[in-house]
Amino acid sequence: MNLLLTSLLGCLVLALPLASGEKFKWCVTSQPELNKCNKLATKAPELECFLQKDVTECMTSIKTGAADAITVDGYHVFQGGLTNYELHPIIEEKYKKGQETYYAVAVVKKDTAFTIKDLSGKTSCHDCYKSRGGWFIPIGKLISERVIPWDGSEEKSLEKAVSEFFSASCVPGISKANYPNLCKGCKSDCSCPPKESDEPFACLKSDAGQVAFLCHNKIPSAEKQDYKLLCMDGSSKSVDEYKDCHLGKVVGHAVISRKDASLSDQIFKVLSQIPSSDLFSSDGGKDLMFSDSATSLIKLPEITDSFFFLKNEYEIMRALKDGPKPIPPSPRPVVNWCTIGHGEKDKCDRLSGIINRLSCQSATSVDECIVKIKRGELDAIAVDGGQVWAAEKCGLVAAMAEQYNQANCGMNDADASSYYVVAVVKKGSGVTWNNLEGKKSCHTGVNRNAGWNIPQAVLCKEKNKCDMYTFFSKGCAPGADPKSNMCELCKGSGKAVGDASKCKTNPDEQYYGYDGAFRCLAEGAGEVAFIKHGIVSSNTDGNGPEWAKNLKSGDYELICPSSPFKAEISDYVNCNWALVPAHAVIAREDVRNDVVTLLKDAQTVPDINLFKSDDGKNLVFSDSTKCLQEIKDSKKFLSETYKTILENSKPIPELMQACTLDNYPVEV
Predict the structure, then answer these.
(1) Same domain, yes or no: 11 and 67
(2) Which of 491, 497, 554, 493 is nearest to 523 (CA)?
(3) Is 583 annotated as a binding residue?
(4) To bridge 619 with a disulfide, which of 158, 191, 382, 613 should be the other Cys (CB 3.0-4.6 Å)?
């Protein structure tokens, strides 16, 4: 049925992006919501209202373009992100001060002897069927952790599996005819909203159930001392320790729509012009269109999807649809390496012919690799320190570091490698530290160490100029806004006018990365290049690819923000912008040991050189790497000083914004 629906939807022509001032349609699911929507439309002419019978119908309408947006809870954010609909959250609600995150908890009486692992055959009390705190989160968590056995099979419904797991339950609002055991514990008619006797805490208190699933704030303060919480690790805690003992967090509401940046921008712009007193009040109802407890709306990063928005709760929701994730074999049969560009993929494929457990997959950028690794689709990639920082914010860990000093290879207590960030200019160009402002610049990429984070931090500190876009007249910084001056000098693939590769963060952009930034300078596009200290020597005096064959290292010099202010290329120790950590391999925590083992073993294979790039430069690993060394404590790999520099770097990468999203933001 789902496949058929997807096919049918795919045949429909989606609505084109809205022109400025054109109306967008808000989907509502009741007459009171329609009344409120029509009232808001009198204050915002671009807003039009579209009535459907329920949220599912609204999501279908948004998918096809018949409607454009709706506000939903976390479960429907997940549902909307499925291939049936392909919707994503674009705006989230911000709530009143004191409106804390709600936690779904499992409550029992204080003298209860069983743990959460022993729930089979017990009696249970729930908030309403399909409520977040009483059904979706607790049941999804218990399934994902294999407490309730259910594999997602269509032969047995989720509700059937739950009814067989508990000896009796009270799940107000579920079909009594279809699932009598799930209403067996109710003292009333099993309707939702529940009668007083069937509310989950009352059900537990009266011994109609042995465990109650509800939001933590529904436990009466005067009776907390008589109850406790069951934790997923098998322990129990006091009712007030819900932040350390819960089944999941109830995320805030979000507006979902099709993935269309211009449509999202228009919706947010129009909603922002409507007074909050009108948006967040519900005459004739409760929480109509938006939550009454909301105070404002926050625009989400464009990269945000249901996976980023729901965070840990994504797996809970996924388990409600498909059952628990399969347990991966240990050790894993393969480590899936993320490569960027044809050169990296070709080298990785050659290595995989020798390293049996290595598999190579492609992505368009480091950010996409980080997302794929975080999702579990891929496992590892080597990146620079700035990208290690971004990966840590996304929950990944640094597993192995590149070591550039051969003498340190084989030493367990050797200092981690590092390199110098330098600013290179052509001799005789007249470009100096004092007149750098307004010049044309070449960067390895936005939010990368040598090319962006360090020069921006230094210019901000020494010149009080913190915006690279305004400090330089124009430049090439792959990953910048394509319409900005920081993409103006980029070359792209050089194959076509209107090249889609221009300013992209992959090797298809010829000025991307260390070698690309130096090429930008060497070919006269820019007047200063921010790169790693060894890049000039590896691309001059007969070294490097075809484009560099006639370059001489003596034709270039360094400029530095302190005395001597300029120096020969070889004097980078005395003329640099910072000493920064080496590149490192990042991975998920659950696959980290497999990645380390694979790479350690690979370094012992005869006749293999992980660090040689025949068809380019710095492919998969930096060419200057002598060995890879295990990072024992990933949290200490980046120094606090270095992290402070990155924390102050602007703009904050969109990926990091998505990874650190507060999906229940509270007004400060």
Answers:
(1) yes
(2) 491
(3) yes
(4) 613
216 is in an annotated binding site: no
Residues 92 and 46 in one domain: yes
The rounded mean pLDDT for the chain is 92
Q: Is there a binding annotation on residue 451?
A: yes
**Across 500-505, average pLDDT:** 92
* Residue 76 marked as a ligand binder: no
Q: Are residues 570 and 430 in the same domain?
A: yes
Question: Does 567 show up as a binding residue in the annotation?
Answer: no
- CB of 242 closer than 8 Å to CB of 103: yes
In the three-class reduction of DSSP (H, G, I as helix; E, B as strand; rest coil), residue 79 is classed as: helix
Question: Residue 367: pLDDT above 90?
Answer: yes
571 is in an annotated binding site: no
State yes or no: 448 annotated in a binding site: yes
134 marked as part of a ligand binding site: yes
Residue 65 known to bind ligand: no
Q: Which residue has the tokens 């049941």?
A: 139
Listed in sequence order, the residues at least 6 apart from 291 whose beta carbon sits closer than 8 Å to its beta carbon are 71, 93, 95, 252, 253, 280
Sheet-wide strand order for 88-95: 70-72, 254-257, 88-95, 294-299
The domain of 519 spans 418-580
If asked whether residues 375 and 508 sit together in one domain, one would say no
Whether residue 330 is contained in a domain is answered as no
126 in a known ligand binding site: no
- The yes-or-no verdict on residue 536 having pLDDT over 90 is yes
The DSSP secondary structure of 99-151, one letter per residue, reads -PPEEEEEEEETT----GGG-TT-EEEESSTT-IIIIIHHHHHHHHTTSS---
- What's the whole-model pTM score? 0.85
Q: How confident is the model at residue 650 (pLDDT cuts 50, 70, 90)?
A: confident
So what's the pLDDT on residue 615?
Answer: 79
* Residue 328: how many other CB atoms lie within 10 Å: 12
CA distance 115 to 125: 16
Boundary of a domain, candidates 230, 250, 270: 250
CATH of the domain at 64: 3.40.190.10
